[in-house]
Design brief:
Layout lengths: L1 E2 L5 H10 L5 H12 L13 H10 E2 L4 E7 L5 E6 L5 E9 L2 E5 L3 E3 L8 H4 L2 E4 L2 H12 L6 E5 L9 H15 L6 E5 L3 H10 L4 E5 L5 H7 L8 H10 L2 H4 L3 E6 L7 H10 L6 E6 L13 H13 L3 E4 L20
Parallel strand pairs: 1-2, 6-9, 9-10, 10-11, 11-12, 12-13, 13-14
Antiparallel strand pairs: 3-4, 4-5, 5-6, 7-8
Helix pairs in contact: 1-2, 2-6, 5-6, 11-12
The protein binds S-adenosyl-L-homocysteine (SAH) and iron/sulfur cluster.
Length: 336
């Protein structure tokens, strides 16, 4: 039987019209599924009984199965979810002031192979389908109310899976009721894929994982920099309409002795001069895959103060969930 979550709205509407029902029932069914989040056709009281029974015979409600859930002392909860082919994916729920942030995955593994990232170290398995992305959100929404922000900062490079990611954002916007302005897509800078997505979702928020201010160093640690060098990414970002540029976040993972010197801070500040951005400094989350260390608190503060001196808004993001290995941005689902 088909998984109802995998069916797109336009296809579903056509389908029920083919069965002789008026198309507006499709809107109602989708509202029940994504907005009221029922998992049962029989509770859809404004749908004709015959259609409910037809749907019941032809579609099933299959969301990713939560197989593990761990909460850290700060309330951050990591979810491990099993997909239909047995692969597992991780998502993190982070409580913040007045809302929750959901950190979700777009791929199983990642092809980009950044030489500091646990996801990158595990290689690439496959893209997630749109309903496996929204499925993570629907599962997390079972735990909290709807005041949520979504960040694509879990496993995978979202712009390496643009079609499914785009579809999932569309479902969130149209049916779950999460505006693209509440959704941040974090990318290493695949700018060819960025432009069509921004055309479709002008309010979508973008975070660029810059991490290094020199081309050589960035290429060394982020091989994708060969294809999408800093220069090209900055040029594209600089050409976006001003209002758009306001919303860009520059992410910079601070690794001790690698990219955390005062010179690096100045180079970063100069590199993004003219862009109206905010900067998130993320002290490195140490892990068993790489020897890198997180800089001292003083070093991080020095780095931040240099950038603040250059009039940037700078935030230091000590990744939550360290204690439970749930730090957003260093997810790596156990396989097998
Ligand atoms: N592929 C996308 C989104 C997922 S990674 C991207 O790279 O932007 C989300 C963020 O986590 C990125 O900014 C990445 O640089 C950062 N990150 C990866 N490994 C990390 C680690 N060990 N410690 C801190 N941040 C890390
Ligand atoms: Fe992939 Fe992002 Fe990790 Fe790089 S930092 S390997 S792009 S998930």
């Amino acid at each position: 039987m088909r998984n109802i979550y995998s069916v797109k709205y336009s296809e579903f509407k056509k389908h029920i019209m083919g069965q002789g029902y008026p198309g507006f029932h499709a809107d109602n069914v989708f509202r029940w599924i994504y907005s009221r989040r029922v998992k049962d056709f029989s509770s859809m009281t404004d749908i004709p009984l015959s259609l409910r029974s037809y749907l019941n015979d032809n579609f099933e409600f299959r969301l990713p199965e939560v197989v593990d859930k761990r909460t850290g002392p700060d309330g951050t909860t990591k979810f491990l979810m099993r997909l239909e082919d047995g692969e597992t994916v991780e998502s993190v729920l982070i409580p913040e002031k007045g809302h929750y942030t959901f950190c979700i995955s777009s791929q199983i593994g990642c092809k980009m192979g950044c030489k500091f990232c646990a996801t990158g170290a595990s290689g690439f398995v496959r893209n997630l389908k749109h309903f496996e992305i929204t499925g993570q959100i629907l599962r997390l929404l079972e735990n909290v109310d709807d005041r949520v922000n979504i960040v694509f900062m879990g496993m995978g490079e979202p712009l390496d899976n643009p079609d499914e990611v785009s579809m999932s954002i569309e479902v969130m916007r149209d049916w779950v009721g999460i505006s693209p302005r509440k959704i941040t897509l974090s990318t290493v800078g695949l700018v060819d894929q960025l432009e069509p997505l921004l055309k479709k979702f002008p309010n979508l928020r973008i975070a660029l994982s810059l991490n290094f201010a020199s081309e050589e160093k960035r290429t060394e640690f982020m091989p994708i920099n060969k294809k999408y060098p800093i220069k090209r990414i900055i040029k594209v970002l600089g050409e976006l309409p001003i209002k758009r540029r306001d919303r860009i976040t520059i992410e910079y993972v601070l690794i001790e002795g690698i990219n955390d010197s005062e010179k690096d801070a100045l180079a970063l500040g100069n590199l993004i001069k003219g862009l109206k951005v905010k900067i998130n400094l993320i002290p490195y989350n140490e892990n068993e895959f790489f020897p890198w260390k997180s800089p001292s608190y003083e070093k991080v503060e020095k780095f931040a103060s240099i950038l603040r001196g250059m009039k940037y808004s700078v935030f230091v993001r000590f990744s939550k969930g360290n204690e439970i290995k749930a730090a957003c941005g260093q997810l790596r689902a156990q396989r097998g």
